[in-house]
Fold this sequence. Notes:
two-stranded antiparallel sheet, 7 strands
Amino acid sequence: xxxxxxxxxxxxxxxxxxxxxxxxxxxxxxxxxxxxxxxxxxxxxxxxxxxxxxxxxxxxxxxxxxxxxxxxxxxxxxxxxxxxxxxxxxxxxxxxxxxxxxxxxxxxxxxxxxxxxxxxxxxxxxxxxxxxxxxxxxxxxxxxxxxxxxxxxxxxxxxxxxxxxxxxxxxxxxxxxxxxxxxxxxxxxxxxxxxxxxxxxxxxxxxxxxxx
Length: 212
């Protein structure tokens, strides 16, 4: 049995997914959200909480880098849920994406999703700078560059001051959790058929990849 979200398996999703098509059912979609919550918590948020430690104030050297690396990976995952697309390395088809697409997925999320869009939508260069100086630099070098600094000392998610771009890692995480809660609420609104169709495509793709 292939697990895709804590104890939930590919077979569990396949048994549920047929009931998600057609007329909206609050109970069925409530169950679908458990798949999403379990997967996001198990693979991103719970590990982050373990790194943060009691009270969210782990002073272990490198904790901030590790937390923000996971958050950057989560951003791309959330954007692909919103679009209903899945990664395929070679010859991606409809509702699939290949190598070289991460930048657009990442920066589009920052520029279009609340609360981040309020920081990024009016500065055409800030999202690209974040992608290079935070996301890519963290994933490849476990550091930041391009004037970016990570701390927990400011009062906004991002502050630009004296040539530095300062990211408050705890507020950054809080912003992502805010988005997740808004996304779940939108999924449960009967009129949002397109968003739910994208959700189904994403989990169908996850199951397909898990079987390979």
